Amino acid sequence: MIELFGRRTSINVQKVSWALCELNLKFKWHEENGQIGKVNVENYEQINPQLIVPTLNDNGIIISQSNSIVRHLYRKYSNIFKTTHIDQIAIADQWMEFQSTDLQINMTPVFWGLIRTAPEDRNHDLINKNITLLNDKFIIFNNFLKDRKFMINDIFGMADITLGVATYRYTSLPITHPKLNNLEEWYERISSRDGFIKNILGTFS
User: Mean per-residue pLDDT for 155-184?
Assistant: First the structure.
């Protein structure tokens, strides 16, 4: 049995739930409607000593860290690592890390500042600085997407999931976004997929 631990609105949990659905894997979801900062699962510290989400139990193999989980699922349950050139896998890895480091470092203060912080408590200097940096990084991503249907080999894959979740959050932010034609076209394609609709759409909070 495959088990997923973590709430539906977590950006990191969303990567995993979407990947599971794209790969048509049945799984049991624990704490799907859980609270921020709390996992109401008995002895969860024994499952994940970091007490973070997501955690995946793949038939007894316990894995944490969302991008590692997504890679594991695609390596084990798809043929991507057999049919895709190693150099292309490296590019997918590069952009998955771009999401979890470069994008997330600026996304977090903007998202928390505008969505999860009361107006009177917001640090607008910090928020505005990171909006600028976040827009700049999405411009870089937009340039990469030129002439690409999907991120790698024109086939939807694990990097599209990771960056797709981040783009959903980015485009949902109440900020001024630059015009990014390549991003918009790619995002329209991925956001029409059943996995996106079932796992991502309507989860911005």
Answer: 98
Rg for the chain (alpha carbons), in Å?
17
Whether residue 195 is found in the same domain as residue 147: yes
Distance CA 3, CA 41 (A): 12
- What is the H or E stretch that residue 160 is in? helix 158-172
Residues 82-132: pLDDT tens digits?
Answer: 999 999 999 999 999 999 999 999 999 999 999 999 999 999 999 999 999
Domains in the chain: how many in total?
2
- Interval 92-103: pLDDT, tens: 999 999 999 999
Domain end marker among 78, 103, 126 = 78
Fill in the amino acid letter for 107: M
In SS3 terms, 89-149 reads as HHHHHHHHHHHHHHHHHHHHHHHHHHHCCCHHHCCHHHHHHHHHHHHHHHHHHHHHCCCCC
Q: What CA–CA distance (Å, rounded) separates 178 from 132?
A: 10
pTM: 0.96
What values do phi and psi take at 29, rounded to 5? -105, 120
